Amino acid sequence: MRAVTIVLFVFFSFFCAVVHSQVYMNFYANVATDLANNNQFQQLGIGWQSRISINNKFQFFVQVQYVPPLLGREINKPAFTANPLLPLQITVAEKISPTQFAVALGHCFLLGRSSAASSWHLVLLTGYGVQGYRAKASVPESYALLNAEIKQSVGGFFAGLGAEWQYDIGKKSRLYVQLGSHIYPFNPTFKSPSVYKNWVPLQLSVGYGIKTSKK
Amino acid sequence: MRVLQFVLLSVCCVCWLGCKKNYTRYFPDPNSNGQAIFSNTANNLMTCFIQGKPWRSTDRSSGGFITPVNRSELSLYYMDIAGGSDTLRISWEGYYLEDVAASANSVVVLKLPVPDGFTKANFSQFKGKRLSLNGTNGYGAVSAPGIEQPFCNANIYFHEAVLHTRANGTDSGYISGLFELSAPAFVLSSGRFDHFLGQYEVQW
C-alpha cells in the first residue's frame, strides 16, 4: 500500500509539474562499459525520457532504459568427454551478453552555462532495474561444457550519478551528452555457477529532446 | 493470553525444527534439455539420459525434527574382497524427470576394480583420468522400471576425485565427472555428476 501511495504521489507531482512547466520528450542511445567486472563487458542501450524544466536551474525526469543482449563477450572454456575415441578436452567459446531494463526518476541541476545555448548539469537518479545476462555456446555433441553459465537476471533499486552537457537547438529541441554511472546497492548477486558480479555500467549517452509543451 | 502465546511459539518452533534443508542445486543446461550443467562446484546431482529419457538423482537433504533422516543421492562404497580384487562402487538413486512417481528408487551403479589395499588417499588417482570398463573387469548397471541392465560397458571421466578423513574422523571429498554406459539395445548417455562426499555418502 505504501508503494502504491509513493507511486501515485510521484506521478501526481509529475503531472502537476507538466501543466506548469516546459516538457521535453527525449530519446537517447548509450554505450557502457562494466566497471564491476574489469570492463569485460560492453553494453549498447536505448532509452526514453520525459523531462520537465521546473525552472532554469532544475529539471525533473522520468526515464525508461533498455539494454538488449546485443553486445557480448566470448570466453573460452574447457569441455570434456568420457568417450575414449575423442580428445578428452576441447575449448569452446561461450558468449555472455549483458542485458538491463530500468525505470528511473531523475533530477538535473544546473551547474553553469558556457553560452546562452550551452549548459552543464549534475544528474542524480534513482529507480528500479533488472539486470542479467544471456549465455550461449555451441558445444559439440558428446562434449559437456564445464560450469556453463545459465541465463540469469536479478532486480533491485539503484542510484546513479552523472554529468550532462545540454545544447539548445533553437527553441524547440535540444541535444545532450551525459556521462554517468549507477549501482545497485541492495541487489543480490548473480547465483552460482556464475562468476560475474552485478553490472556497474559507466555509460555515455547521447540524446535528442523535442519540446512538447506550448510554454 | 500467555498460554496462547506459548502455544503459538511452540508451534512455530516445531515447524522450524521440522524444516528440511536441500543441498542439491540444479542448474538446467541451456544446450541440453532436461540435463543439469556439468560442474565441479558440489551441486550434489547426477543427470543423464537413459534410453533417451532424462533421468536425475534425488535431492540430498538433511531432515528436521519431524523427518530426521539425512537423505543422500550418492553412495561411494569400498568393498574389500578377501582373495579377490577389491571394488569401488558408486551408486545413485533417482528418477525419470517425466515420470517421477513410477520411476522412484531407480538406481544407476558404476563398479570400478581397484588394487588390494586401496586407500582414500589413492582415490585421487582417478582425478583427470578416463576409464573404460568392459563389463567384466568393472561395469555399469541400471535398474529402473522396465530396465534391468546388470553388466554394461562404461566410459568414465573423473574431473575431480578427492577423499580424505578429517581430524574428527569424518570423511570429506569431492567427485565430479562424466560417464556413459552401453549394452546390446541399451544406452545411458551424457551422464554428469558433481558431489560433495561426506559421512553419509562414503562407506569405506
Can you give a write-up of this model?
The complex is a heterodimer of chains A (215) and B (204). Helix content of chain A is 9%, strand content 60%. Chain A is mainly beta. Chain B is mostly beta strands and 204 residues long. In chain B, strands 2-3-6-7-9-10-11-12 form an eight-stranded antiparallel barrel. Chain B has a two-stranded antiparallel sheet with strand order 1-4. In chain B, 35% of the residues are buried. The interface between A and B is medium-sized, with 19 and 24 residues.
Order of helices and strands of chain B: HEEEEEEEEEEEEE
Radius of gyration of chain A using CA atoms only = 22 Å
By DSSP, the count of extended strands of chain A is 10
Order of strands, widest sheet of chain B: 2-3-6-7-9-10-11-12
How would you classify the helix and strand content of chain A by structural class?
A: mainly beta
Our estimate of the beta-strand percent of chain A is over 45%
Rg measurement of chain B, Å: 19 Å
Profile the largest sheet of chain A.
8 strands, antiparallel, barrel
Are there runs of chain B of 5+ residues with pLDDT below 50, and where?
none
Helix content of chain A: under 10%
The total strand number of chain B stands at 13
Q: Summarize the main sheet of chain B.
A: 8 strands, antiparallel, barrel
What gross morphology of chain B would you assign? Answer: globular
For the record, give the distance between the C-alpha atoms at the N and C termini of chain B, rounded to a whole number. Answer: 55 Å
**Largest interface in this structure:** A-B, 19 and 24 residues
- SS-derived structural category of chain B: mainly beta
Low-confidence stretches of chain A: none
